[in-house]
Amino acid sequence: MGGVRTDLNGRASISGLYAAGEVACTGVHGANRLASNSLLEGLVYGARAARTMRDEMQTPQPPSAIAPQASVQRNGSSPDGDKSIRKVQSLMWQNVAVVREGKMLRQTLSELTAMQPSVPKASDRRAHEAANILQTGILITRSALAREESRGAHYRLDYPIKNDRKFAKHSVVRGDVVSFG
């Protein structure tokens, strides 16, 4: 249901970022794709993205030039990261599942945003995951709140009718702003 806007070779608007399959938004199949369509997109556009990355790849830096950060643990896990992840999962499951309502979306967005300073610093893989999961939850909640209609697997109790005139478009998030285009 959406994803990273890409061209037909998997390129996103951020240099060096490529996406394919369920995470990509190519415009080929639209929103609410069936599993077989997203699988097909993963195969076709994954191959295209791989070919494009290979063709556009610059000369790689030698391994010695890439120094690992001293503060990053390679194989550790973060109890605080686990706690943050569980909290985001719980909020998303309770308030941002298929059936949604504006009041709960606003409350959830507020709670998720308030969590940002308390997410552990990226010192290990789990802390990185916690930060990414929190950011993804914020983006999904913000987008669900902006889409004041019901469409596909997005059902708003406070907006039960589909509104093609205003919302038959992709949700595009830039910073804190959700637009439709």
Walkthrough of the structure:
The protein is mainly alpha-helical. It folds into two domains: 4-56, no CATH class; 75-180, Fumarate reductase/succinate dehydrogenase flavoprotein-like, C-terminal domain (Methane Monooxygenase Hydroxylase, Chain G, domain 1, Up-down Bundle). Helices cover 44% and strands 9% of the residues. The chain has five helices and six strands, in the order E-E-H-H-E-H-H-E-H-E-E. It has helices at 35-56, 79-95, 102-115, 125-146, 164-167, and strands spanning 4-5, 24-25, 99-100, 155-156, 171-174, 177-180. The protein has a two-stranded parallel ribbon with strand order 1-2. The chain has a two-stranded parallel sheet with strand order 3-4. It has a two-stranded antiparallel sheet with strand order 5-6. The longest helix is centred in the N-terminal third of the chain and has 22 residues, at 35-56. The two termini are 15 Å apart. Mean pLDDT is 83; it is low at 64-75.
Structure in a nutshell:
The protein has helices spanning 35-56, 79-95, 102-115, 125-146, 164-167; strands at residues 4-5, 24-25, 99-100, 155-156, 171-174, 177-180.
User: Tally the helices: what do you get?
Assistant: 5
Number of domains: 2
The CATH superfamily of the largest domain appears as Fumarate reductase/succinate dehydrogenase flavoprotein-like, C-terminal domain
Major sheet characteristics: 2 strands, parallel
Low-pLDDT segments: 64-75
Radius of gyration: 19 Å
Number of strands: 6
CATH architecture of the largest domain: Up-down Bundle
Terminal Cα span: 15 Å
The average pLDDT score comes to 83
> How much of the residues is beta strand, in percent?
5-15%
CATH topology of the largest domain: Methane Monooxygenase Hydroxylase, Chain G, domain 1
**N to C succession of SSEs:** EEHHEHHEHEE
Form type: flat
The chain-level structural class is mainly alpha
Query: Could you name the CATH class of the largest domain?
Result: Mainly Alpha
Helix content: 40-55%
Strand order of the largest sheet: 1-2
